[in-house]
Amino acid sequence: MSVSNRLIYLPLGGAGEIGMNTYVYGYGPEDRERLIVVDLGVTFADMGTTPGIDLIMADVSWLEERADRIEAIFITHAHEDHIGALGHLWPRLKKRVYARRFTAAIGRLKFDELGLPTDVIQTVASRPETIEAGPFRVQFVPVAHSIPESAALIIDTPAGRIVHSGDFKLDPTPIVGEGWSEVLFREIAAETPVKALMCDSTNVFSPHAGRSEASLADPIHGLIAGAGGLVVATTFASNVARLKTLAEAGRAAGRSVCLLGRAMQRMVKVAEETGVLTDFPSTIPVEQAVEVSRQNLMLIVTGSQGERRAATAQLSRGKYLGMELKEGDLFLFSSKTIPGNERDVLRIMNAFSEMGVDVMDDAGGRYHVSGHANRPDLELMHEIIKPQMLIPMHGEHRHLREHVKLGATRGIVGEIATNGMMIDLTGDRPEVAEYVDVGRVYLDGSVLIGAMDGVVRDRIRLALNGHAMVSVILDENDDPLGDAWVELMGLPEIGRSEKPLADLMETELTEVLGSAPAKVMRDDDKLEETVRRIIRQVAVEEIGKKPEVTVVVSRLAEE
Amino acid sequence: MSVSNRLIYLPLGGAGEIGMNTYVYGYGPEDRERLIVVDLGVTFADMGTTPGIDLIMADVSWLEERADRIEAIFITHAHEDHIGALGHLWPRLKKRVYARRFTAAIGRLKFDELGLPTDVIQTVASRPETIEAGPFRVQFVPVAHSIPESAALIIDTPAGRIVHSGDFKLDPTPIVGEGWSEVLFREIAAETPVKALMCDSTNVFSPHAGRSEASLADPIHGLIAGAGGLVVATTFASNVARLKTLAEAGRAAGRSVCLLGRAMQRMVKVAEETGVLTDFPSTIPVEQAVEVSRQNLMLIVTGSQGERRAATAQLSRGKYLGMELKEGDLFLFSSKTIPGNERDVLRIMNAFSEMGVDVMDDAGGRYHVSGHANRPDLELMHEIIKPQMLIPMHGEHRHLREHVKLGATRGIVGEIATNGMMIDLTGDRPEVAEYVDVGRVYLDGSVLIGAMDGVVRDRIRLALNGHAMVSVILDENDDPLGDAWVELMGLPEIGRSEKPLADLMETELTEVLGSAPAKVMRDDDKLEETVRRIIRQVAVEEIGKKPEVTVVVSRLAEE
Question: What string of DSSP letters covers B179-194?
């Protein structure tokens, strides 16, 4: 091993936020390291900060410029915040993708929809199968999480072994898939000392040890057994284990079970096709469900986060696919509300309340458990892996900071590495090697745009201030041809003086432009500035707001 | 008492939501009842559903049309969700306003700012002082809450006694102001049987008895005594008791205390001027605070909900009024995050984390208590008041529903009365008398607009879809004069074919309009429809989105 080789870690997304996980490892001479990418995830847009945006992902320009140095892409599991950007960003990287069979199957479905080649996604068995990717040797180690076949990665390099935890919890009985195995992880740490543990930080503030997925069966069975009317339950579509627990509880209570929502049906289908799920209770299609009496029926539906078009929201608005909730029914949110979605979820809960439906949620923790390791679980992981260094990931800054502190209590040297911080892991402690320009890219309709392009900023301005459009036509002498025309959108029609606002603006424009100096009238910029000033002045007087203004000056003389 | 008289209750806001409390009581012959109004509050806008809106309040058209029947307005306390609309809606009602001295003083400040007559707000002492308002006799009864001088109202009518709880908690030691007195409420119930209890429902889902404001002193003192660097704490500006506890803890730890934020300074000033607050620790102005070493200083600041312009958010962005947080400082959120504000608050916590500041919040319940009665407290209130009927208020639908159920366990007949449901209380049980059209009114800049006016709907559309403006000029023969002009806002500049989107639209418009049939070209509606269709078609092809389109057709022949 040449002394000039180094081992680097570079988060491009997911470090300093929960979402859009995108991590890079490199090994080799400085600036010529061979690279691997771990996960290409998305984060979700919201009306408040990213109106109209479909998906948010990491800006991978740094990777794109170094595409010839990338050996491979590894996806730890099929949650959208780990795989959601793969199809959108893959055309920029065009490297082989490795994942376990369930994750790979989900990835291929996405590639198929986008018209991308599905054969670049290769299925990998779990350890001891090993992928050689340049200087890296990578193994997938099964961990429990809230989706089938989540994996930690063992990344062996000439500079030492890295354990990339992926999203995990210490659950020996996860209902679907392999449970977490302490023995396995002790073996991994004993086999080769671990240089660095890159570790999930989501629940570092949760003080009690996490609970097993299996612990939910009894409360959920009890709840559904005691229900009189229709039972509807929602959870994350990809939480196949939960779907199974819910469906089994429905069947045990003598109910027919119907899955509503495309995402959920797809997850169950893929889980069955890949052999991950073998004994899911029988379900009936919705066409058949509408014929079943409500006390004998259970619906399991999408939309636990209040998504407008998902089944939960549809049912809260009334009849959906022939189904309608009413007095005496039960609706179970077997899920937690992700911060930012509270208003949407509460709106739905209240709509159900208006229908007389009893709504249960995760208050009290009886009907939902998290998929992430809690604080004591993280401590156990530190103890088992005994890494030389701890680099927290998958967390907001406060999570990363707390996780470094937690590691320090055991004497593990840590580093808060946020997006764009390239960390040199070669020596005895993590060193910041470089700050890489990072950012976000938005999927807007069918186009990828930069977060700083100004498009979203303009949309927010339009939403806050409204829009005034002015058309001014000038003749060959730069004199106004007719009156200026003002169209308003997103603004009150009538203000203080109780006359139409657009009329007042047009009158004022006509007056001012009729007597404006020639140097203003012949200069587009000056003219636009004058028009903008007048529009805003009238608006402030009349409605106390300054709208966005767009001016179109048409000069007929120029024809 | 004539048989034809009736006693009615009509919530116009606050029933089916938490916010904009606006309640009406009436007594008299049907449709000629004399009316009183209790509270005129606001709710806050958010970017997601009400972009650009300053405040949201109940539509009081029903009251305005019956202004001659209104006897008076009563304000229970000075929280914005109870008093915030008073100044904006008073000009429509113009009736005398009654409140306790602290609330009245806050009301007069608001009236003064809006140029309204302050002398219409009359200060009322607490029970036994009684306001005669037509058939109503009203007393203010002190209750503990998270603001000084909150009051329940005893409303005596010829048809019986009503207890309107206001916002309350069962706190005998609220630090500032009178504590809740069980004796007093037992006396009220013993004096005259209570026909109806209109009751705060906010915390009906909180299973444990509420804790006293006084219980926070020890944990807060301990936390601050142990801090090494600068200490900053935030809470709701109007929680004068909390401000006192915080300031005392700071002083006890040998720190100078500085209040940052206009709202907070104003609340303390008014509380002192009205005699509600007598022994607030001495504070120093910010000009002096910048000279104090950080281990000897404590700031108490506004902005616990992450409001952009408040001190907390300002400090999270860097230097503010000469103050700057750094490694080793402590920031305490002595507050809870109101649903919907999570993202803003978390963003700030993470910014502090990046500065190396230790952030404490109400997790674990050590540094914050709620101002509302919890479930067991509500049960005790029911037991004490023994009302014939229970009408829950101050809650979302799910709260009202649960509260009715809770009352039913004690055999009290209840009714879920949401905004617009007029309830006849005259008989032995509440009866829905009528459904009144209700809605919301928005303060937008300086103008009040209806929630259904379409202004906000248009803003949301602009934000989601972006805006394309098209100017088309036609000559006297309805032929296009020059090319169409397209301006885009909030849209990507470049789409699939990598050419400027506006150019592509202009080219397509020129082509289509150049060969459009005369019947299209001479009809504004048909022409606009054609233009809109072309714009959207190009946009869908290029960027996969359908923008909002505004078309300005100028016909020079019409001059």
Answer: PP-HHHHHHHHHHS-E
B47 to A460: CB separation less than 8 angstroms, yes or no: yes
Give CA separation, A559 vs A522, A555, B556, in Å: 15, 8, 14
Residue contact A462–B354, C-beta within 8 A? no
Domains in chain B: how many in total?
A: 3
* Residue A469 to chain B, least CA–CA distance (Å): 8
- A492 closest CB neighbour out of B447, B487, B550: B447
Choose from A338, A404, A447 for mutation: most chain B CBs within 10 A. Answer: A447
Q: Are residues A10 and A117 in the same domain?
A: yes
| 8 Å CB contact of B354 and A397 | yes
pLDDT in tens, B189-222: 999 999 999 999 999 999 999 999 999 999 999 9
CATH number reported for the structural domain that contains residue B542 in this entry: 3.10.20.580
* Domain assignment present for A455: no
Q: Is residue B461 part of a domain?
A: no
Q: How far apart are CA A200 and CA A394, in angstroms?
A: 5
A433 closest CA partner among A124, A110, A6, A3: A6
Query: Would you state the structure tokens that stand for residue A200, as one six-digit string?
Result: 């999930």
Tokens of A492: 């009150």
Interface with chain A: mutation pick from B459, B487, B538, highest number of A CBs within 10 Å? B459
- State which of A392, A423, A450 marks the end of a domain: A450
The answer to whether B14 touches B419, Cβ cutoff 8 Å, is yes
CA distance A113 to chain B (A): 16
Give the end-to-end CA distance of chain A in Å, rounded to a whole number: 72
H or E stretch covering B422: strand B421-424
3-state secondary structure A222-288: HHHHCCCCCEEEECCCCCHHHHHHHHHHHHHCCCEEEEECHHHHHHHHHHHHCCCCCCCCCCCCHHH
- Assess whether A125 and A13 both reside in one domain: yes
CATH code of the domain containing B134: 3.60.15.10
Closest chain B C-alpha to A456 CA, distance in angstroms: 6
Which residues of chain B are within 8 Å of residue A465 when distances are taken between CB atoms? 52
Q: Do A153 and A50 share a structural domain?
A: yes
Shortest alpha-carbon distance between residue A78 and chain B (Å): 25
- For residue range B217-235, what is the model confidence (pLDDT) as tens digits? 999 999 999 999 999 999 9
Let me know whether A59 and A176 are in one domain: yes
How confident is the prediction for chain A on average, in pLDDT?
96
Does B225 fall in a domain? yes
Domain boundary among A307, A337, A360: A360
What domain range is B267 assigned to? 213-360
pLDDT tens-place string over residues B26-72:
999 999 999 999 999 999 999 989 999 999 999 999 999 999 999 99
Same domain (yes/no): A350, A442: no
Is B465 within 8 Å of A52 when comparing Cβ atoms?
Answer: yes
Q: B248-281, pLDDT tens digit by residue?
A: 999 999 999 999 999 999 999 999 999 999 999 9
**Chain B residues touching residue A338 (CB < 8 angstroms):** none
Which of A414, A355, A381 has the alpha carbon at shortest distance from A152? A381
Confidence at B3, pLDDT banded by 50, 70, 90:
low
The mean pLDDT value for B282-297 works out to: 97
CATH number (domain holding residue A231):
3.40.50.10710
Q: Residues B163, B75: one domain? A: yes
Residue of A444, A490, A552 with shortest CB distance to B462? A490
Percent of chain B scoring above 90 in pLDDT: 96
Read off the pLDDT band of A3 (50, 70, 90). low
pLDDT at A339 over 90: no
Q: Looking at this predicted complex, what is its ipTM?
A: 0.93
What does DSSP assign to residue B505? H
Please tell me the distance in Å from A287's CA to the nearest CA on chain B.
31
B350 interaction partners in chain A (CB closer than 8 Å): 16, 396-398
